[in-house]
Write a structure and sequence with these properties.
The complex is a heterodimer of chains A (346) and B (175). With 346 residues, chain A is mainly alpha-helical. Chain A is 71% helix and 0% strand. Chain A has one domain. Chain A is built from 16 helices and no strands. The longest helix of chain A is centred in the first third of the chain and has 32 residues. Chain A is globular, with a radius of gyration of 20 Å. The termini of chain A are far apart. Chain B is an all-alpha fold. Chain B starts with a helix and ends with a helix. Classes of the chains: A mainly alpha (346), B mainly alpha (175). The interface between A and B is medium-sized, with 21 and 16 residues.
């Protein structure tokens, strides 16, 4: 793609999300979502083959439906409250419809079906933008309407998302689908605590973005999209096998790595609010996630994965220069001792 | 009948939307879109928005739909789908029509419809001229406000349209 056009379209994606996060008028928020959706379609279709076109079409259809539902919720809110300002949504019908629309945009169960298929059909860099940047805008709106969201619906969607994200990722060998299911599960964790303490949602989003960014960049660095291809990194850059190990365990939520921090805080916040069964279930279902991360680390860093002899050497393309990879790796694994700093967030 | 003109126009509006949502070939969708555009213009005019209604006819029907019609005529197939040619299309159209008829009967019979919002009878949509809108027409002032207080909206919409063209060219360019 012409670099000038590509920069313009990428900047429009950024502008769309910024408009969503900065506006106080519901119509501008809707416009921001549409601008974001419109501009990300050619980025998803950077490589021109039927798979990317199909993935972009699926993404467009689901997100456009979600925008239509959002517009309907905005209009119902307008009818009942008579104003367009962003506050909590007082009417229950509008609140439920808006929560469903934002859940469709995020990829929460039962609207999660597009996430693995779209992520699999596009290139690694586009998948990176899809799974990290595109989650910012809907989550910021959920944060702003969080006092009025129907708790039953939110918690049901959250728990089902963690379940689907864990269970669905078990049978996958394609790395992009694994990351997609991981994204579904993490979104479930984020929305579970939204009604209790939305700051923790933002904390979880921050740490999730750092970890996903790191994982994708490690995949891009070793040019691997399948587990088999990733298992050959010991031959190409042995250092990345260790880094993949650390980052994957951090994503699984193991102490003493940073991925433990959001899970710990979320479980603490939920138990403070007298719900015991829910965080127990969530923690148990996070084990499913941990299982397939462990399987990846097993095949990548802990064993020499079986393959035929002439496949052991990975073809050395010129080394990609990944910006900010070392700081990202450090941040996604070593942030746990900084947990007491969260007290400044109040 | 004139007191209920908005209600009648809204029914025709919904029926024409059902007409193109049941997915006949685009050229027939465009035909129904003309009807819905004209009826929508009528609804806006009944609320006093003569300028905006004229905008619908000129820009939407006379600009965008004409271009759409030309491009569809260039890309049309040999036997385009019409509502009676395919059982699926006819079925969806009849289903939408049936639902609209049931809703209209429900509205006409009962005094109050409380589905999502309060709608107390057909009389709720009749326009009463209270006569206190003053010297200025509200909708012209709204359009003027768009270009003064709403400058940010103009910038955002203008940029969206520009990027829309870039995106469409990029998507259809191929390799």
């Amino acid at each position: 793609m012409n670099p000038l056009i590509f920069t313009t379209i990428l900047m429009t994606v950024l502008l769309g999300t910024m408009i969503v996060m900065m506006s106080s008028h519901w119509l501008m928020i809707w416009i921001g979502f549409e601008m974001n959706l419109l501009a990300i379609i050619p980025i998803l279709m950077k490589k021109y083959n039927p798979r990317t076109m199909e993935a972009s079409t699926k993404y467009f259809l689901t997100q456009a439906t979600a925008s239509m539902l959002l517009m309907m919720a905005i209009i119902i809110n307008l009818m009942h409250s008579g104003q367009w300002t962003i506050t909590k949504v007082f009417n229950p019908t509008a609140s439920i419809i808006m929560t469903s629309a934002l859940a469709m945009k995020l990829g929460l169960t039962p609207f999660h079906f597009w996430v693995p298929e779209v992520t699999q059909g596009i290139s690694l860099t586009s998948g990176l933008i899809l799974l990290t940047w595109q989650k910012l805008a809907p989550m910021s709106i959920l944060y702003q309407i969080s006092p009025s969201i129907n708790l039953n619906i939110l918690l049901t969607m959250a728990v089902l998302s963690i379940l689907v994200g864990g269970w669905g990722g078990l049978n996958q060998t394609q790395l992009r689908k694994i990351m997609a299911y991981s994204s579904i599960a993490h979104m479930g964790w984020m929305t579970a605590v939204l009604a209790y303490n939305p700051t923790l949602t933002m904390l979880n989003m921050l740490i999730y973005i750092m970890m996903t960014l790191t994982m994708f960049m490690l995949f891009i660095h070793s040019s691997s999209t399948t587990t088999l291809s990733l298992s050959h990194t010991w031959n190409k850059t042995p250092l990345t096998t260790t880094l993949i190990l650390i980052t994957l365990l951090s994503m699984g939520g193991l102490p003493p790595l940073s991925g433990f921090m959001p899970k710990w805080m979320i479980i603490q916040e939920l138990t403070k609010n007298n719900s015991i069964i829910l965080p127990t279930l969530m923690a148990i279902m996070a084990l499913l996630n941990l299982y397939f991360y462990m399987r990846l680390t097993y095949s990548t860093s802990l064993t020499m994965f079986p393959s035929t002899n002439n496949m052991k050497m990975k073809w050395q393309f010129e080394t990609k220069r990944i910006t900010f990879l070392p700081p990202l790796i450090v941040m996604s694994s070593l942030l746990l001792p900084l947990t007491p700093m969260l007290s400044i967030l109040d | 009948m004139m007191t209920y003109i908005v209600f009648i126009l809204s029914v025709i509006f919904v029926v024409s939307f059902v007409g193109f949502s049941s997915k006949p070939s685009p050229i027939y969708g465009g035909l129904v879109l003309i009807v819905s555009g004209g009826v929508g213009c009528g609804i806006i005019m009944n609320f006093g928005g003569s300028f905006l209604g004229l905008m619908v006819f000129l820009i939407y029907l006379g600009g965008m739909l004409v271009v759409f019609g030309y491009t569809t005529a260039m890309a049309t197939e040999q036997y385009p789908e019409v509502w009676v040619s395919n059982t699926t299309v006819m079925g969806v159209f009849l289903l939408g029509l049936l639902m609209e008829v049931m809703l209209v009967l429900y509205v006409l019979k009962s005094e109050e419809v409380g589905v999502v919002f309060e709608f107390s009878g057909v009389g709720d949509w009749a326009i009463y001229d209270t006569g206190d809108s003053g010297v200025f027409s509200e909708e012209i002032m709204g359009v003027a406000a768009l270009y003064s207080y709403g400058a940010w909206v103009v910038i955002v919409t203008g940029w969206s349209l520009f990027v829309g063209v870039l995106v469409i060219l990029e998507v259809t360019r191929g390799d």
